[in-house]
Amino acid sequence: MLAVILDSSDPERLYTGLSLLVSVEQSRGLATFGALHALSRIDADVRGAHVVASEQEPFARTLVALRDAAADRIWACSAAVQATGADPAGLAGVISIPSFMAEVAGAQLVVV
Fold first, then answer.
1. What is the CATH number of the domain that holds 63?
2. Which residue among 39, 76, 88, 103 is least packed, with the fewest CB closer than 10 Å?
């Protein structure tokens, strides 16, 4: 089992975290403060700071596809939802960090 905590709003870091989630069959994700808003705003116009101009469009398309493929494995952090007013629609649900950690006990943990 792989547990990925998505914290960053940076598109390139989200790409990495989402890639991990979709690459491992037994995986779960938790979107916290920075990532929670960013996940809902990923679209064809997203840009990666280190992605060359000719690859920006494919990067954005792939990021959207990764988000969509991983959405049913990503829970929104309940504290982040409450504190930021973010809408967790499209994700697997809302869960507290302690509950998430209990559910993924023994998993390899990655924070992105």
1. 3.40.1260.10
2. 103
Range of the domain at 45: 2-111
- In tens, the pLDDT along 42-88 reads 876 788 889 999 999 999 999 999 999 999 999 999 999 999 999 99
Write the CB contacts of 88 (distance below 8 Å, at least 6 apart in sequence).
Answer: 31, 36, 76, 81, 94
In contact, 84 and 38? CB cutoff 8 Å = no
**Considering its fold, how many domains does the chain have in total?**
1
Tens digits of per-residue pLDDT, 13-52?
999 999 999 999 999 999 999 999 899 888 767 888 899 9
DSSP three-state, residue 102: helix
Pairing of strands 2-6, 27-31: parallel
DSSP structure class, residue 71: G
Would you say 110 and 2 are in contact if contact means Cβ atoms under 8 Å apart? yes
